[in-house]
Amino acid sequence: ILLGVFTTFKVSSLLNKTILKGVPSTFILELPPYRKPQIVKTLVHSIFDRTLFVLGRAMAVAAPAGLLIWLMANITIGDATLLTHCAGLLDPFAKLCGLDGYILLAFILGFPANEIVIPILIMSYLASGSMVDYDNILQLKTLLVDHGWTWITAICTLLFTLLHWPCATTLLTIKKETQSWRWTLIAFALPTLIGLGLCMVVNLAATLIF
Known about the structure:
210 residues, mainly alpha, two-stranded antiparallel sheet, 9 helices, 2 strands, globular
């Protein structure tokens, strides 16, 4: 948490000194007139204007992604699934970051919703055709260790979880609020580059020292 806060302040400072230099920054908070609470109106407004809008936007992104994940896990080329072939292609670069191809692929496929990254990773390791999850943490530990995880892998995975691209719904919100593809791209690329760079440094340092 402290690393995330520190990184946020440092990146904000860097942006203020570079591409945002000279751009005025203001924050205006408008307080509405005090009225007697209208519970029913508030609930209706919250459900239709907020909750359903967010859920609809999430479904529009998550449904195609779910279909893609299922196809990749069930389409076989040669003696391996498409998921396995893609992980193999990503593996050399992922190793530089202290990860493996399956971990990096899980983050990519989890772009619509970050909470599905671990289920995708488990599905990939188990060569299962559907997403699964473990209730017992010891089972998950055994699975990860059996697939080559070390403490370096765990730390780099945590770092990349903290510092990587926002989910698709967040990027759609950024696009809507800024009305700019440029800032949306920056919001995607900046944390991703920082996350990959930090993982590379940690992996290299840990490998050389230990």
